[in-house]
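User: Can you fold this complex?
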Amino acid sequence: MKKLLFAILLALAAPTFAGEAAPNAEDPVIEQRMIRLAEELRCLVCQNESLAGSHAELAEDLRREIRAQMKAGKNDKEVIEYLTNRYGDFVLYQPPFKPVTYLLWLGPLLFLMIGGVVWYATLKKRRALKDAPLDEKRLAAAAQLLEDNK
Amino acid sequence: MKRWLPVIIFFVLVGFFAKGLFLNPREVPSPFIGKPAPAFTLPLVGNEAQSFSPADMQGKVWLLNVWAPWCVSCRQEHPVLMQLAQDQAVPIVGLNWKDKDREAAQLLAQQGSPYAAVPDDLSGKVGIDYGVTGTPETYVIDKAGIVRLKHIGPIDMDVWKNKIEPKLKELGA
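Assistant: Here's the predicted assembly.
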């Protein structure tokens, strides 16, 4: 029991040693702005990582470039333009709304509408079925069948 | 018909997924297709006094091959490029990308150079200007300096025959 406790405590303690290298915080304001922007951008090397979180060399270069441009007084929009001019909309985790992405953005709405139409049609059909008056002739035929099978 | 609808939908979905499974996620469409190749001026590897600029290739259809001595798949591509150079198929310019250990000159001297010129992009900025994500990447640039095609990954004979050579013919190389 003591051993287990010790192991658990050890496991809990381990992460405290694994400190990341201190960020290059020459200018904490720009660093923060850079990180916030880079979190919205995709790293082209490890495509499921953000530019802020990736350790790929290219991501480091691009972070340095973003930092330099922010220092030079460019706003976020200009920095994003710099990147999309080179790497395309693929760097953006939120692609812009334009003709090629209409289906992407409006697709879910389209599917919702299709679902709504099907739902409405089904309900209408069901109600029509319930409301239909019983046909005298068919009722008689049914009674006849029951009679015959006796 | 109505009974088969779910089956049809199922197979349509399978078709989409199968297509997605075989797409190469590295093949990101380049925003440079149909646009002028970004200008730069860089010193040449092994001859720093001289420089290269894409404007030097005006009037020619040429390949810009982004490579690096530390890049493993570039070595795989090297014999193919050597063959193309030997056949004088098309002038190839080899942008030496982020060669921090300064190995390019020696490597090319040892293994032969398929390149008409080897501009030295030590900082990697020119590569970034071209939207390079990883070596090797190859751009086909036409007589007017417009980027016509980008290939990501090593060129093999299959890529050359089916992708690059037809494009060069189309551009009148």
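The radius of gyration of chain B is 19 Å. Residues 5-22 of chain B form the longest helix (18 residues).
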